Amino acid sequence: MDFLEKLSIQPANAGVSTGSEWLKSKGERIDSYSPVDGLKTGSVTAADEHTYNQVIDKAVKAFHEWRMWPAPKRGEVVRQVGEALRTFKEPLGKLVSYEMGKSLQEGYGEVQEMIDICDFAVGLSRQLYGLTMHSERPLHRMYEQWHPLGVTGIISAFNFPVAVWSWNAALAWVCGNTTVWKPSEKTPLCGIAVQHIVATVFKKNQVPEGVNCLVQGGRNVGEWISHDTRIPLVSATGSTRMGKALNVAVAARLGRSILELGGNNAIIISKDADLDMALLGALFGAVGTAGQRCTTTRRLIIHETVYENFKQKLVKAYGQLRIGNPLDTANHVGPLIDKDAVALYLQSIEQAREQGARFVVEGGVLSGPGYESGCYVKPCIAEASNDFPIVQHETFAPILYLMQYRTIDEAIALQNGVPQGLSSAIMTLNMREAEQFLSHAGSDCGIANINIGTSGAEIGGAFGGEKETGGGRESGSDAWKAYMRRQTNTINWSTQLPLAQGIRFDL
């Protein structure tokens, strides 16, 4: 595994860093085991309370200097980070694939997302614009501008161990913020690798120590971040349960949060769909990353006139899936992240049966040569009702539920009839159906697609969802505003002091 050496990954790594400096911590040891083969890849040391406070103090101090750098100069540093990621795309993509378990192509794709968001942020560094407004008072000018917030806390999940961090970090940096990253304890080595890459670029550009910080750890470190008044913004990706607890903690201190939580995404398959195109979109959406994406397709809502035909196409396609080592590009599906995830997968299948689901493609755990880790499972398909409790729940595994509809209104109601609201799609060549799906009476999700699946968002658009998905927005469009504070300014260049609303205050 030469990619570990290329990324400066050692059998044991410090897990707390203020940039190029690594702190000695008395925190617990976190071991990383690959779901690919079950082997131990390395270890990191989690932050203890002392080193955590050292990191935050350093990030606060660095902010006071970093915010004074011109935004285009900050953007130039981020451009160089993107170039460094291009250099390390192959070994970092392999590490993502090996430590997390997603296919190698998806691992490379995740690093490409990092590169893309750096490119986006470079341009953004020259476009942090405000507005000019007309004042009601003569010889006055009004405008608004945006200022950096301070320290941005980033809590990321195992399924995208590096990309989601980059969405936040690249924007936060060009906006003038510093960042403190807590990677998932299930993929700690990805955090180590990225920290080394960024530190080299920052050091070359004399970026203040503390602009890019790393704090490895579990739930306790996440709780320190969520309660810390020195961190005005916390961006967190994970379960709805986690997000609710974090949101309460951050709101209690009047901080801000960006939440990217659970998804229960559906594709509507219209009678007017291109069924071959729909098949590819549904297949990747359902089994990509072994069903461990927040944008994974978990429900197919199929028109009754094409239901049986499409179901048979889908069953045949599932029979052609190759499950195995994700570093082998011939395989379509890799393992689940760990055996706890496997247990939840099996539990969900059992609950689905008890609630009345009928499986048309059976699930199960794979064993034998190549499956020694015990984390490889079969993607499965079940016919179910949208109101089954298990269907209303997000299961982070490759379980796909099928259901029928008659009218487009009924299909949209089924699509919207879950607590989550992240991603959605309709496959149709009917313009009226497509426009209705995108209208006020259509999808209630943060992402709504026509003739593509629910997965694979580009960085140019803002990413996020509604309802129990949290309402946050990251990545493209004007998501940068979440990392800054708005300020309205009024300038009086007259010799008088008139008051607004015509109020007179004469002595």
UniProtKB/TrEMBL annotation:
Pfam families linked: Aldedh
Q: What class of enzyme is it?
A: oxidoreductase
Q: Which GO terms fall under molecular function for this chain's record?
A: aldehyde dehydrogenase (NAD+) activity
In terms of SUPFAM superfamilies, this protein maps to:
ALDH-like
Every copy of the Aldehyde dehydrogenase domain together lies at 22-488
State the active site.
260
Keyword Oxidoreductase attributed: yes
CDD domains recorded for this chain? ALDH_F7_AASADH
This entry's Enzyme Commission designation comes to 1.2.1.3
Record key words, sorted: NAD, Oxidoreductase
Q: Give the record's family classification.
A: Belongs to the aldehyde dehydrogenase family.
Assembly and interactions? Homotetramer.
* Record's protein name: aldehyde dehydrogenase (NAD(+))
